[in-house]
Each structure stands twice: as structure tokens, then as C-alpha cells.
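Fill in residues.
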């Protein structure tokens, strides 16, 4: 789905149309005070169009607002859609950085490949983030644990009901100031084991960040809420742990070994990747391998597993305090590693600690 011209395309000229009625500074400050995740949006968004004939073109910054979509737009029928989640962080000197955008750009390309969508060049991805921050930089909050959550997404906008990859595709980035994802900040979360539903299957779309995976997680997630749990964990067909609805999962063993599921059908998280790198730097043995639900439960019962935590961009790191299923409820041991890795990662992201891996990319100025 990527023509040679697209791959060579590193940047585009963005046309900027300012919002004629942006929020006032006072309104913005009020909105930034304690935003509920994903409910507040900035004054602008980025758009880029792709067509079969022209490739990526018509790059623009435009006022945030509803999209006019043909009712036959293929995304509404066949779900040809992918997205990303990445944050902008305000440093103490006022500058704005993002974290490993090359990784998000590469994952968006992998998702695009799986969903038969065109691949957005990585440089254009980062340029688009910069263009949005150039007009909406004031929306990057500066409170503790706050950030501007950036949501790039790509969907089939071609009006066509035949089942084939769309020949017209839209890319947008919207931005939403956020604080802690879970009420209670880094307090331990409870997890419902989805025994009746799977999120992904062999050869499916589990490794792609595509809306359908999240649609498939909503019913089991609703079950989790009914059971008083915060999140749902999914298994594969062999009983191996995959991931949560919107986060990866990591296990800490009493000898310091760190284990996280290896699976072709999970979303390879950039938070997970980074935490594993930080843990390796500290001398931990890090293993990506299959871990079954039995190994999890037995490991906790025997004391071999001393900590379990979830991680992702939105929630950062969340210790898991309870695992519940239809016929059991296991308290989980709480340790210090999750919180200490969380602190190290967020210190890097917010510029409080040396960025020794060169993960940060400046978005403003
Ligand atoms: N797994 C799923 C299903 C997710 O939605 C996310 C969040 O983006 C993750 C894992 C973690 O990925 P990342 O750390 O890149 O945000
Ligand atoms: C993220 O962490 O970026 C996610 O996508 C998780 C959820 C909000 C879907």
C-alpha cells in the first residue's frame, strides 16, 4: 500500500487555518485543571489526505470539529481504521517534548500494513505532531502527572461498499489534555480474567492498533466493571496470558527476573519496551516468553512471583492488586519495582532525569 513516492516523502507543507473561536486563556486553564481522560480537546487538529493517485497530500492544521463523512465511507462498514497514542510532556523550563515518536510511527506503519492502509512516512508523523503543538502548545498542561495525549488515527474515508482496501484515506491527529488514567493515580488496579471472550486470535489483528480489537474488548470490559474490576486480561487459545484491554502486563519474579508475554497477537507497547530497557540497565534478567494463567496463579501462591503490573501510554504503570475470575479471587503481592520503574520513566519523560537513551524529541521551538 505504499508507493515509492510515499516512502521518499519526508515532509509536507502544512496549510494552517486558525480556529476563529479558540477557548480563552481562562477557559483553557479551567479545562486543564483536572481533565477526565479523553473528554477535553484542544482548539485544532491535523489532517492529511491520502489517495491512490496522489499519495499523502493536503496536509493541514484546521479548527477542531466534526468531520463530514459520507455515510458510505468504508470505515463505517468494514472498520478499516488504525490509531496511535502518544503524549507531549511539559518540562520545567516550559519546553515540550514527546517520547519515542519513531516507535509510534513504526507501529502505525505496521498497523497500516495489517489493515491494508497506506503507511504514513515516519518523518511526516513527527512533523505532524510538531505542527499541532505549534498552534496548540499552550494546551500541554504543567501539573503533576499531566500531559497532552495525542491521538493520531487513519481511516478509510472512501465512499464505497465493495470489500477492498480504500482508495481514499484520512489521517488526523487530535489532542486531549490528561491526568491520571485510573482514578486514584498509581493505586493498585484489579483485573478481571476474561474466560469467555478473547481479544485476538492467531493470524488476526491483535498486534495492530485497530478499533476492532477495542470493540472486541468492550463486552468483557463491561463484565470486568460488573465484577468490580478496573480492567480485563485476555488469554490466548492455549491459556497463555496476552494483555489487558489497553495495557501490556509484566511479571516480576523473586530472583529479579522480569517476564512479559511473547505473542504475535498482542500490541507491542512502547511503555513496555522502554520499561524493559530500564530494567535491563538495572541488571534484571528480562524474558519475553509465554506465561500461562496457571503459572501466574501458582507463582503468586508459591511466592515465586512477587509483583505484577500493567503498562501503557495512557496509564503509564499500574500495579495489579487483584486478579479475579468466575471462581476465584487472588490478592496480588505488591512490590516496589513497578513504582520505581514508573518513577524513572516519568522522570525521563518530564525532563527530571538524564535521557540517556535519547528517547525524547522536542516538539516546540
Ligand atoms: N496493549 C493495548 C491493547 C493497548 O491499547 C496499549 C496502549 O496503547 C498497550 C498495550 C500499551 O502500548 P503503549 O505502551 O505503546 O501505549
Ligand atoms: C494508550 O495507552 O494510548 C491506549 O491506547 C490505551 C487506551 C486509551 C485505548
Amino acid at each position: 500500500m505504499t508507493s515509492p513516492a510515499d516512502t521518499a516523502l519526508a515532509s509536507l507543507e502544512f496549510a494552517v487555518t486558525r480556529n476563529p473561536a479558540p477557548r480563552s486563556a481562562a477557559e483553557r486553564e479551567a479545562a486543564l485543571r483536572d481533565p477526565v481522560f479523553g473528554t477535553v480537546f484542544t482548539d485544532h487538529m491535523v489532517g492529511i489526505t491520502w489517495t491512490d493517485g496522489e499519495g499523502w497530500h493536503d496536509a493541514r492544521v484546521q479548527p477542531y470539529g466534526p468531520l463530514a463523512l459520507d455515510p458510505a465511507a468504508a470505515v463505517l462498514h468494514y472498520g478499516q481504521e488504525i490509531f496511535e497514542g502518544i503524549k507531549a510532556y511539559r518540562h520545567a523550563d516550559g519546553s515540550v517534548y514527546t517520547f519515542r515518536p519513531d516507535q509510534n510511527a513504526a507501529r502505525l506503519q505496521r498497523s497500516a500494513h495489517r489493515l491494508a492502509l497506506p503507511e504514513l512516512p515516519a518523518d511526516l508523523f513527527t512533523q505532524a505532531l510538531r505542527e499541532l503543538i505549534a498552534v496548540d502548545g499552550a494546551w500541554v498542561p504543567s501539573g503533576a502527572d499531566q500531559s497532552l495525549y495525542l491521538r493520531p488515527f487513519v481511516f478509510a474515508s472512501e465512499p464505497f461498499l465493495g470489500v477492498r482496501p480504500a482508495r481514499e484515506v484520512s489521517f488526523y491527529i487530535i489532542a486531549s489534555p490528561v491526568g491520571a488514567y485510573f482514578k486514584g493515580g498509581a493505586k493498585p488496579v484489579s483485573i478481571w480474567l476474561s474466560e469467555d471472550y478473547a481479544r485476538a486470535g492467531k493470524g488476526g489483528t491483535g498486534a495492530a492498533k485497530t478499533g476492532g480489537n477495542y470493540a472486541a474488548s468492550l463486552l468483557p470490559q463491561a463484565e470486568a466493571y460488573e465484577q468490580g474490576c478496573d480492567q480485563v486480561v485476555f488469554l490466548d487459545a492455549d491459556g497463555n496470558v496476552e494483555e489487558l484491554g489497553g495495557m501490556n502486563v509484566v511479571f516480576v519474579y523473586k530472583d529479579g527476573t522480569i517476564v512479559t508475554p511473547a505473542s504475535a497477537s498482542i500490541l507491542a507497547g512502547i511503555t513496555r519496551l522502554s520499561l524493559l530497557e530500564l530494567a535491563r540497565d538495572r541488571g534484571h534478567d528480562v524474558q519475553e516468553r509465554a506465561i500461562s494463567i496457571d503459572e501466574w496463579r501458582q507463582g503468586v501462591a508459591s511466592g515465586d512471583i512477587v509483583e505484577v503490573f500493567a503498562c501503557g501510554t495512557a496509564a503509564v504503570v499500574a500495579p495489579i492488586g487483584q486478579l479475579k475470575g468466575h471462581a476465584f479471587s487472588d490478592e496480588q503481592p505488591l512490590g516496589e519495582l513497578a513504582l520505581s520503574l514508573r518513577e524513572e520513566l516519568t522522570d525521563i519523560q518530564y525532563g527530571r532525569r538524564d535521557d540517556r537513551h535519547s528517547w525524547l524529541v522536542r516538539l516546540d521551538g
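Residues 85, 243, 246-248, 267, 269-272, 312-313 surround pyridoxal-5'-phosphate (ligand 1) (CB under 6 Å).
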